[in-house]
Structures are given as structure tokens and as C-alpha cells.
Amino acid sequence: MEGRVRILNDQPIRQDGRYVLYWMQMNRRVDANHALQHAIEVADELGVPVLCYEGLTCTYEYANDRIHTFMLEAVPETARRLAKRGIGYCFYPRRTRQEPNDRLYELAKHAAAVVSDDYPTFIARQHNASVPAKLDVTYRVVDSSCIVPMSQITKREYAAYTIRPKIHKLLPKFLCAAPDRSPRRKFEGPVPEWHVAVTPDSIAALVASCEIDHSVRPSISYTGGRQMAEKHLWLFVEKKLRRYAKERNEPSKHATSDLSPYLHFGNISSLEVALTVRGYATEHKLIADEFLEELIVRRELAFNYSRYVEDPHSFDAVPDWARKTMAKHAGDERDPLYTNEQMERAETYDPLWNATQRELLLRGKIHGYYRMYWGKKIMEWSAGYQQALDLMIYLHDRYALDGRDPNTYTNILWCFGLHDRPWIERPIFGMLRYMSGDGMKRKTDTKAYLQEIALLERTGKDPHRVE
Ligand SMILES: Cc1cc2nc3c(=O)[nH]c(=O)nc-3n(C[C@H](O)[C@H](O)[C@H](O)COP(=O)(O)OP(=O)(O)OC[C@H]3O[C@@H](n4cnc5c(N)ncnc54)[C@H](O)[C@@H]3O)c2cc1C
User: Fold this and answer.
1) Mutate to test the pocket of ligand 1, among 260, 265, 289, 405 (most ligand atoms within 8 A of CB)
2) Residue 164 and residue 38 in one domain
3) What are the contacts of 195-198 at 24+ separation with CB within 8 A?
4) Res 332: pLDDT
């Protein structure tokens, strides 16, 4: 657990607490979860059981059927796996704004300690800043999102090349299986009367009963939950890993893992993914370096960025050269110039870009290589850089299953020079890296991609969906 635990208030352990409360905010899984394991450690020391609390509120920005459904799909399996370990579980879907918003505080009153997830973006970042001061019991957060805990890289890193050697040096210590204990004392109840037992059959009605945006339909490609995360992982190692290095930038080859939604909601940890991939690669004499570079170095660079900057959604941390070049080119004529609505509806002159936006609308994720093109074109066609940044964040927050993640903001800002270097100067882009439709056509099979997205749109079904 070294380097993973932070204590966020000065309150004591409640000696007569009935349980240790684990508030599952971001890492919505039972296995390989260092925070849950820390809760178990503390509970065993005190001789009390563990109770896990998971909430789903209707009030987060752009709450909608897609995100709610994906999150709810994980709940039955979480409940099953916790029960198997003798851990109590209560799940609270706050359907309307009129319903109570204080379930955590209600449970914390009887807790010996409260443990949660250390996560540098979205609601968890806000909660971890505001909740600890309101509790009269110790509140700890545990980093189970990164392989090398965020605390081990003690300052903001400026690019992959600066963080890489540090991560590689620390990997032998941290790239090892998470503890896997069950608590000594079983939770015997009672669970609060507001707990809702979710079953696969009850999800659609539950989503329909929530005061959220019902116009964003569930993804046609991804089902949430632990089992689906494991299926994607095994499909990847067995069928795609050997092709990854060569084909990962070719969307029609489906050579990437599609794990980002599962990593974002913590249904699976990057640690488990890395260990599985490395183990399989060793056994089958494959090289997994390219994949592990993305999963570990690039992903943890994003967590490092989000942890150390004050506002991960702003231009504050882009390098000076990028800021200067944007200032110089702010007045360049944009032609064409599209409104946010035109871009949201995928109504530009460029069929390839429209297809990437449709992929986001339908699948809730864009292929990694085309996602760069998607971002760069939004920059080119928006009235200004700030409008472009705001639109990219809005589209991710609203439609992407892997949105609101450290990867979201870091990679969107990469389009504006973060973690990148200056390139040849040109209109609008200045010295920011440029991407063109012709380049995409030269390097990838755009025709196959256009056909694939057209089929999704026509049929409303994804033949690549993992069942
Ligand atoms: C404009 C833009 C926006 C992006 N928004 C997101 C986002 O909202 N959420 C998100 O997870 N990723 C985002 N990315 C990064 C990358 O595109 C996705 O992580 C990747 O496409 C996810 O698909 P996969 O799981 O099949 O990736 P794989 O290629 O199978 O990679 C495995 C994992 O490695 C990590 N990874 C891969 N590429 C990167 C990268 N460039 N930076 C950091 N980590 C990476 C991810 O966790 C990914 O799931 C964005 C990239 C761009 C250019």
C-alpha cells in the first residue's frame, strides 16, 4: 500500500464505529482495489466489518441514459462479489433532485473510518476536496487508478520523455498484484432501507425513472461491468495484442483494447491489465511494449497532469510556446467556421470528420488515432481556441463513456500543445501540430472506416460489440 494512501482530515478513528465504510466513487470494482483493501486492513485491526457504499446521482453535469446505464450495468456484479467476501453493500440511485443527498454522511455517522478513491478529476476531485472537512471521523483516499502511485512522481512532468524514466525505475516495485483479502468479520447488516438492489432486468426502468437527459441513448457498442471488462481484456490479449504495434492506428482493424470506458469507471484496473498483458506476452513470446507504453506511461502522465494542475480543463498549463503561437494566430480567418451545433450534429463538409463525431454519438468513444484528427479539426473550424476547447470537453463530458477522465483533459489539451513540441508554423494552428484529411487518407483506410460508421448508423447495431 506504500504511497497509495492519503489522509485528508485530522479526525480520529471512531472507536465504537460499527464498520469501516468504503465509498466506491471511481474504482467501481471489488477485485484488485487497493482502497477496498485498505478499508479491509483498517477493519481487521479494529475487529469490525466493511460496508461499501456506492451512489449514482442525477445531478452530475450532462447526466444521461448512456452514462447511467453503463454504470448501472456494473452494479449487480459488484453486489455479488462483495457478498461473496462478506462485505456489506448499499447502492443509492438519487433519481431526482428532491431526494436526499446525504446518504454518505448518514453512513459515516456509524463508521470507524471512511475510505475512498484518490482520483484527480470529475466529481471525486470535488468530493475529496469538500467532504473530509464535514466529517468527524478519519477520511482517507487511496490511489488504485495508477500502477505507480501518483504520489511517487512528486511534481508535474512536462512530457512523456520526462516521466518515462521515473515510471520505469519504479515499476519493479509497483507492478505486482494488489492484495486480495476478505475481511475477518462478516457484515451482518442491517443495510439502510433506501438501498436499491439492481438486477440486469431492472436497469432500463431505473434509468427511465431518473431525472436525467434521456436523449443520449446507451452506447450501441459497450456494456458496463466487471465481466465485460474481463472479456475485453481477454479478447485483446488473445486476438489483438500481436497486431497492436502494427495496426493500432488503423481503425478498421480493431486492434486496440477498447478498455478505456472500463478503466475510466474502474471496472478493471490498469494494474490488472498490465499484469495480464505482460504475462501473456512473456508466455507467447510477444512484444507488448507499445501497448504498455500507452497504458502506463501515457495514462499516468495524464494522471500526473491532472493531479498537479489547479484546473485540468484550462489552458493554464499548456507550454509557453503554445500559448504564444495561439495568441499570434487568434485572429486568423477560420474558413469554414462551424457552430457548436453543426459540429455536435456531425454536419461539416468533411465525411471523415463527420464519421468520427458519429462514432462518438453512437459508440461513446472514438478510435484513438482518429480522435486526434477529430480534435485538430474542431480547433481549425471553431471561432477561437477557447471555444474549441470548451466544445471538445462538452462533447466528451456528454457523450464519451471514457470522458471526464484525466486522459480526456490531457489529450484534448494535447491538441493545443500540452506534452507536445512546436511544429512548422501555418495559419490557425500556428506552431501546433497539424493534421489533414489527406494525411489520414494516405496513412489509413478511411473508406473502410466510413463504411463501418455508416453501417452503425443504418442498423443501430455494432457487429463488434462484445457479448
Ligand atoms: C482529442 C482526444 C481525446 C481523448 N479523450 C480520451 C478520453 O476521454 N478518455 C481516454 O481514456 N482517452 C482519451 N484519449 C486517448 C486515447 O485516444 C484513448 O485512451 C484510446 O483511444 C482508448 O481506446 P483503447 O482503450 O482501445 O486504447 P488502447 O490503444 O487499447 O490503449 C489502452 C489504454 O491505454 C491508455 N491510452 C491509450 N492511448 C492513450 C493516450 N494517448 N494517452 C493516455 N492514455 C492512453 C488508455 O487508458 C487506453 O484504454 C483521447 C485522445 C485524443 C487525441
Assistant:
1) 260
2) no
3) 195/89, 195/90, 195/91, 195/92, 196/91, 196/92, 196/93, 197/79, 197/91, 198/72, 198/75, 198/76, 198/79, 198/91, 198/93
4) 98
Q: Do 326 and 299 lie in a common domain?
A: no
**Residues 231 and 426 sit within 8 Å (Cβ to Cβ):** no
Burial code (b: 16+ CB inside 10 Å, e: under 16) for 375-403 equals bbbbbbbbeebebbbebbbebbbbbbbbb
Distance in angstroms (rounded) separating the CA atoms of residues 115 and 101: 19
User: What would the mean pLDDT of 92-111 be, rounded to a whole number?
Assistant: 98
Q: Say yes or no: 134 and 149 in one domain.
A: no
First to last CA, the chain: 35
423 assigned to some structural domain: yes
For residue 255, being part of any structural domain is answered with yes
- Residue 161 and residue 191: Cα distance in Å, rounded? 49
Nearest Cα residue to atom 50 of ligand 1: 411
Is any ligand 1 atom within 6 A of the Cβ of residue 405? yes
pLDDT given at position 189: 87
Q: How many CB atoms lie within 10 A of CB 308?
A: 16
Residues 292 and 341 grouped into a single domain? no
Specify the CATH number for the domain of residue 449. Answer: 1.10.579.10
Please report whether residue 404 resides in a domain.
yes
Tell how far the Cα of 343 is from the centroid of ligand 1, in angstroms. 21
Residue 56 grid cell = 449514482
Alpha-carbon span 250 to 234, nearest angstrom: 20
Q: How many domains does the chain have?
A: 3
- Ligand 1, atom nearest to 298 Cα: 43
Write out pLDDT tens, residues 375-387.
Answer: 999 999 999 999 9
Range of 239's domain?
145-178+224-308
- Please tell me the pTM assigned to this model: 0.98
Average of per-residue pLDDT across 233-261: 98
- The residue contributing the CA closest to ligand 1 atom 23 is 258
d(CA 85, CA 309): 38
Q: Do both 367 and 282 map to the same domain?
A: no
Q: Are residues 324 and 284 part of one domain?
A: no
Burial (CB count <10 Å: 0-12, 13-18, 19+), residue 264: buried
Distance CA 274, CA 271 (A): 5
Closest CA to 139 of 265, 1, 5: 5
Structure-block grid coordinates of residue 115: 475510505
Does a structural domain hold residue 248? yes
